């Protein structure tokens, strides 16, 4: 009986205190099914101008994604294809396809505060970083786990440290902070406007604040989302990129 009671206590403690890797994995799973289609607006704000791009995106569980710009007219037809850690961009005006080399992964994607690196790392945080629970924090009434992420020794990544806030009850991401090698806060990402979309309850506004460039903010607003849909493999081909 004593052993049974001990095992039961251990099980309860395990349920109450999930590991950092579990918390991070659950948070990633909130956004992903076996496949997805998303329509969105991306608004780029700087001290000098503001512009909005309308896009649609497909992704699947084979670590592939395609993003197609719909408007404005000047950029309509531009596409970004990601297969694993490889990224290509098709520019409609010049009808050229560019492969993005590793040296350019930290370059701005479509003039936004998101980078090509963000596209590549969107689905492998658990594989690339060691996560540690460092406490809890309440943000806007939402009780969150506080996680610190540091890169694994065998992985070449840009950010020396990342700090995540993930809501306990829903596993939804709430806030992410990105630090360089000097410990300087470079970017802050906020996940806002939580509501049901595509059969899931998710943050529908993702805001990237550029702390290194005050006044620069990029906000992605989801307009439509569908999950676990059939997507033809040809969608993620180089031929379709230039079609």
Describe the structure.
With 243 residues, the chain is of the alpha+beta class. It is 17% helix and 48% strand. It is built from 5 helices and 13 strands. A hairpin with a 7-residue loop joins strand 3 (64-71) and strand 4 (79-83). The termini are far apart.
Q: What would the keywords be for this entry?
A:
disordered N terminus, 13-stranded antiparallel sheet, alpha+beta, globular, 5 helices
Sum this structure up briefly.
The protein is α+β, with helices and mostly antiparallel strands. The chain has 5 helices and 13 strands. A 13-stranded antiparallel sheet has the order 6-5-4-3-2-1-13-12-11-10-9-8-7.
Q: Report the sheet-strand fraction.
A: over 45%
Proportion of helical residues? 10-25%
Order of helices and strands: HHEEEEEEHHEEEEEEEH
Number of strands: 13
Q: DSSP helix count?
A: 5
Query: What class do helices, strands and sheet pairing give?
Result: alpha+beta
- Major β-sheet annotation: 13 strands, antiparallel
> Biggest sheet, strands in spatial order?
6-5-4-3-2-1-13-12-11-10-9-8-7
Q: Mean pLDDT, rounded to whole units?
A: 90
Low-confidence stretches: 1-14
Distance between the termini: 68 Å
* Quaternary structure of the protein: single chain
Radius of gyration: 19 Å
Shape: globular
